[in-house]
Write a structure and sequence with these properties.
The protein is of the alpha+beta class. The protein is built from eleven helices and five strands; from the N terminus they run ααααααααβαββαββα. The chain is rod-shaped.
Length: 390
């Protein structure tokens, strides 16, 4: 019950009593009236302290106020209105409120028996008007509570949305940092495995040439020419490596498989074919990154471990069936059980971020397949992963 309703409830008890005592002194009956009013105030206080017995107390209070109104005239017929305020301040059903209103009106009319018809009609009309006002106030309070609840829910959803936005930004930053780290590691491996070995070979050829100058000048000259060619080739490879450190100016697609295929042909000196099937669709940056890195890892492993000279890259868009990336090569097929090294584990972990899988087969050719779910499924999988992380 609000403080306003509580004040009105007490006023409908105290004010009619005071006006009655001022308008018509009751003499010896004054003490009985005051005792009755104090008992009514006690019932009001008990109903506030003990909500479980509110209904019996309200029934006793309504009947008691009706009896006081019937016993003494004056303005005491207003006492039951206090009970009506208490009834409508409680959370009861519409049927119960109607029952209380009709029952209270019957008590009110019974307490006014023997008085003028005009007073009975006015009291009944005032009873119904007060009930209507209380109903309107109750509805307004319910709307206010619902508005507060909706506001709290909206604020909570706004906080969740803001948290999801921050997590998405953090995730994008982590992906970018991971991509930069992977690229630096790959370039470091290229420099170590390719340029490093070439420079060592040039150094050994230069030392051999120093000894050949005194023995075979023509052969020493030929060796120097080979050193020159090796250095020229190494310089070209170094330029390509440096160019890869900067972002492409014309092509904004950083993780494009078709460009990776062209670069692999130039850098690895092998034939790489690329085929696209299905209906291509825009992909999330994280999915483009996964497909690009898995292709890069598979092509590199095919040359390094299998000695492949031909690699076939197939990207298939299957709609609701997801996206399938297959990299097959003509290199040496591994014998026995294939153990997952750092490369295969990295491919599997990247695909698992969006709910995908990495498998391989070793039939006529060795092939690695990366499957990623459809865009909607990948988004749901990422959200579930985020909720589990939280």
């Amino acid at each position: 019950m609000s403080s306003l309703m509580r004040w009105l409830r007490h006023l409908f008890i105290v004010m009619p009593t005071v006006f009655t005592l001022i308008a018509q002194p009751l003499g010896a009956a004054t003490d009985w009236l005051i005792c009755s009013i104090l008992l009514g105030l006690l019932a009001v206080k008990l109903s506030e302290l003990f909500p479980k017995i509110t209904v019996p107390l309200l029934i006793i209070e309504l009947i008691g106020f009706g009896a006081v109104s019937e016993q003494w005239d004056g303005f005491l017929f207003l006492l039951p209105y206090s009970t009506l305020i208490a009834i409508y301040s409680r959370s009861t059903s519409t049927a119960a409120l109607c029952f209380w209103t009709i029952g209270g009106l019957a008590v009110q009319i019974a307490s006014l028996s023997g008085r003028s018809t005009e007073l009975m009609a006015a009291a009944a009309l005032l009873w119904l008007m007060l009930a209507a006002v209380l109903i309107a106030a109750r509805q307004n309070n319910d709307k206010h509570l619902r508005a507060e609840l909706l506001y709290e829910r909206l604020a909570s959803q706004h906080e969740e949305l803001e948290g999801a936005r921050r997590r998405l930004l953090d995730y994008a930053a982590q992906i970018e940092q991971y991509a930069q780290t992977e690229e630096r590691n790959r370039i470091a491996r290229d420099i170590h495995d390719d340029l490093g070995h070439r420079l060592i070979r040039v150094k050994m050829m230069a030392e051999a040439t120093l000894h050949l100058f005194d023995v075979d000048t023509q052969r020493a000259r030929h060796t120097v020419e080979q050193i020159r060619d090796q250095l020229q080739d190494s310089m070209e490879r170094m330029r390509r490596t440096v160019r890869k450190l900067s972002a492409p100016e014309e092509d904004s697609r950083v993780y494009a498989i078709d460009r990776l295929v062209r670069e692999s042909c130039d850098m690895l000196g092998i034939e790489v074919a690329f085929a696209l099937h299905g209906n291509p669709m825009p992909l999330y940056p994280s999915m483009e990154y996964i497909l690009y890195r898995n292709t890069q890892e598979a092509v590199t492993n095919a040359v390094r471990h299998g000695g492949a000279t031909f690699v076939e890259v197939t990207l298939r868009f299957g709609g609701d069936e997801g996206i399938l990336l297959k990299i097959a090569n003509n290199g040496e097929i591994p014998s026995g059980i294939i153990k997952s090294g750092l490369g295969l584990r990295g491919m599997s972990e990247r695909a698992a971020l969006v709910g995908g899988t990495v498998t391989w087969q070793a039939d006529e050719q060795f092939a690695i397949m990366t499957w990623l779910p459809a865009l909607q499924s990948a988004s749901q999988e990422w959200e579930e992963t985020e909720r589990r992380t939280i």
